[in-house]
Automatic annotation (TrEMBL):
GO terms for biological process: L-phenylalanine catabolic process. One of its GO terms (molecular function) is iron ion binding. It catalyses: (6R)-L-erythro-5,6,7,8-tetrahydrobiopterin + L-phenylalanine + O2 = (4aS,6R)-4a-hydroxy-L-erythro-5,6,7,8-tetrahydrobiopterin + L-tyrosine. It is an enzyme of class 1 (oxidoreductase). Fe cation binds at residues 130, 135, 176. It comes from Sphingomonas suaedae. Residues 1-12 have a biased composition (Basic and acidic residues). This is Phenylalanine-4-hydroxylase. Pfam families: Biopterin_H. Keywords: Iron, Metal-binding, Monooxygenase, Oxidoreductase, Phenylalanine catabolism.
Length: 290
């Protein structure tokens, strides 16, 4: 899922109370499988040297190079053996508590539709390419798999504390748009980046965005944009460190603290930031002027 807004209020016709539907893989047309192949081929050329090692390993282990939209049953079987995760189909965005409950039980909910051939770059709702190509490879990594499960439990807890917005920012700046510092340089791992033709280059190559060392409280106070490339990326030192700091920290007192503080503007630099690259913000300025 890319967004925290939801369109439907109850499970649509044919969906279970957990909002899942059969993937109905046989119903995808040749054209739809061809859209997957087109998207796959242009991403896979970009990712070596850009995507994190764990992500590339996951692509390989899960055999995502096979042609066409993956069959969730086969994919889940492979994933289950590696980390105990499954992929289940949903018709679109689901309510937050449903989303978190699936995650807490190691079920990743994936969209059951694919963008049209004339929409390769722009889409409002996460489709099967974003959800599977973007998110699923890292679920094959044991550490990231643990992080995602913990996040699901954390989500249910955040709802009780009225802190959904704060916790969603953590998801946004890690799971969707995170960067990682590896031995040979910065790499992308967020699903919103690795599944995007434009942003998988922009996030690493552009002089425009800020790249700042990850800090839990800082991230949970920072607004984000959902309509264009990020102006701000947060860089983790490793998945081990991300997991360690998020599971060892009790978020309840942290929520109280940050709910009393002002939000941080999207491209602002704060005292205490470890600035890795200070962006020009030229790209954002150019777009706002257009
Ligand atoms: N430790 C967090 C809490 O106390 C839960 C969490 C773990 C949230 C991992 C996000 C990621 O709520
Ligand atoms: Fe997503």
């Amino acid at each position: 899922m890319m967004s925290d807004t939801h369109v439907l209020e109850r499970p649509p016709e044919g969906a279970g109370t957990d909002w899942t539907v059969p993937q109905n893989w046989d119903a995808f047309t040749r054209e739809e499988h061809a859209v997957w192949d087109t998207l796959y081929e242009r991403q896979i050329r970009l990712l070596p040297g850009r995507a994190s090692k764990a992500y590339l390993r996951g692509l390989d282990l899960l055999k995502l190079s096979e042609s066409g939209i993956p069959n969730f049953e086969e994919l889940s079987e492979r994933l289950m053996k590696l980390t105990g995760w499954q992929v289940v189909a949903v018709p679109g965005l689901v309510p937050d508590d449903v989303f978190f409950d699936h995650m807490a039980n190691r079920r990743f909910v994936a969209g059951n539709f694919i963008r049209r051939a004339d929409q390769l770059d722009y889409l409002q709702e996460p489709d099967v390419f974003h959800d599977v190509f973007g998110h699923v490879p890292l679920l094959a990594d044991p550490v990231f798999a643990d992080y995602m499960e913990a996040y699901g439990r954390g989500g249910l807890r955040a709802l009780e504390h009225g802190a959904l917005k704060q916790l969603s920012r953590l998801y946004w700046y890690t799971v969707e748009f995170g960067l990682i510092e590896e031995d040979d340089g910065l790499r992308i791992y967020g699903a919103g980046i690795v599944s995007s033709f434009g942003e998988s280059r922009f996030a690493l190559d552009s002089d425009s965005p800020n790249r700042i060392g990850f800090d839990l409280k800082r991230v949970m106070r920072t607004n984000y944009r959902i309509d264009d490339f990020q102006q701000n990326y947060f860089v983790i030192p490793s998945f081990d460190e991300l997991l360690r700091v998020t599971i060892e920290t009790d978020f309840a007192p942290l929520y109280d603290e940050i709910l009393a503080q002002p939000d941080i503007a999207i491209a602002a630099i704060e005292p205490g930031d470890r600035v890795i690259t200070l962006g020009t913000q030229d790209y954002a300025r150019g777009r706002d002027a257009a």
